[in-house]
Amino acid sequence: MIEAQSVWFSYAGGPTVIRGVSLSVSPSELVYIEGPNASGKTTLLKLLAGVYKPLRGRVLVDGLDTRKTPPHILARHVAMVFQDPGTQLVGRTLEEEAVFGVTIIGLDEGSVRKRFVKYLRTFGVLHPLSTPPRRLSLGEQRLVVLAACLARQPRFILLDEPFFGLDAETLTSVVQVLSSQGYGIVIASCHYPPFSPNKHLHLTDGKLQ
Amino acid sequence: MSELAILAHHLTVQYPESPHPVFQNLSLEVSLGEFVVLHGPTGCGKTTLLYCIAGIIPKIVPARIEGTLQVLGNDVRSFPPSSSPIAFIPQRIDAALPLTSTTANLCLLSGASLSEVDQILKQLGLGASAALEVWKLSRGKQTLVALAAALLRKPRLLLIDEAFSNLDLQSGRLALQLIEQARRQNTLTVLAVEHWFPKQLTNMISRTLDFRSLVRS
Fold it and tell me: Which of A195, B124, B141, B158 is 20 to 30 A from B133, comparing alpha carbons?
């Protein structure tokens, strides 16, 4: 389970962005956070992923406090696809993208590669593994990053503004695949969801409604 | 028949490293002053088409182009890029915006006066963001800044690659109002590629097109 407990956050020298947010995400649950531009959605997702640490309150991922747990441990529990997936691409080819850094988090490269290819083909990305990921469209890059995240078998996956680059039909089928496999999913977007989430929350000015 | 801003006929595009064309036999006509929203599945070639119309392909990004592609009456392969009347808002807007304040960005990118910049920022609800560095703004606000920079250049053709996926309904409406104003003043033609365009705002555009309907196999 992911639990945010009265979380507050601001960037250095800036105004408060997240104001006392509490929420929980169970395995197999689909949580949708809708909010207008600049309401704090990206910041909240990064707090849930452990990328940012709360200034007050805490975030627990499967019982692990994100302020005290190193990233390579958290990576086995939660993964996030950023709003611009291009900022996460590191490999020169899809194959390199699949296995980059996996031994650091204690996974076997061969198994990760197999799972990556399976997810990639399930999502309809059929390019050869020698393809440079930066040559793909933004939507395909999003699916590549998602497949790389899933190949590492986290329990929770966080998607930031996934409509950017993906049509609603593709996104809906991706969500169906993830839900059927028991992933806890959190999606943040400024749009109304084209599917029915388990929880539909609204974030305005850093507060959950 | 009205004058055309974009005419593509039997257009085929293939990147040098790819064994297959991105698309084949694509035909598209957009009249001067129209606002067309183009949608289609992920990876079908929408961004590549915008790159061709903007002249980025083949001048900057090499690719093989076959067929006819005329933009504002000129063959794109001979379009003079230094005086291009085309503004292009790419998907990755942060790559196109320098690390300066919002106001400085708009002045640098468009050559507009400070008063023009102030006015357009207020129209887009970005008055409070004028002094902030652009990278500190949310993605949605960065998109509005990129739109402001494009419109301040007073282009005749505006190409948009997925701006509305990043905008909430209120920001989307503000963006469309500004585009509408530019269309009235400058006979601006707009071609926008979008995966997500709010249904509530479709009365503010001329028509939508499915990319797949443009391609004949």
Answer: B158
What is the tens place of the pLDDT at every residue in B168-211?
999 999 999 999 999 988 789 999 999 888 888 999 999 999 99
Establish if B173 touches chain A: CB-CB under 8 angstroms: no
Inter-chain CB proximity B195 and A143 less than 8 Å: no
Domains of chain A: 28-50+71-208 (3.40.50.300)
Is B70 in the same domain as B173?
A: yes
Average pLDDT of chain B, as a whole number: 89
Calpha distance B43→B63 (Å, rounded): 17
Contact B141 A143 (CB under 8 A): no
Asked if A163 is an interface residue toward chain B (Cβ–Cβ < 8 A), one would say yes
Interface predicted TM-score of the whole assembly (ipTM), two decimals: 0.76
Domain count of the fold of chain B: 2
Of B83, B86, B102, the residue nearest B94 (C-alpha): B102
Q: Which residues contact A153 (CB under 8 A, 6 or more apart)?
A: A76, A107, A115
In this complex, do B165 and A140 lie within 8 Å of one another by their Cβ atoms?
Answer: no
Rounded to a whole number, what is the distance in Å from the CA of B107 to chain A's nearest CA? 24
pTM of this structure: 0.86
Structural domain harbouring B71: 4-85+155-214
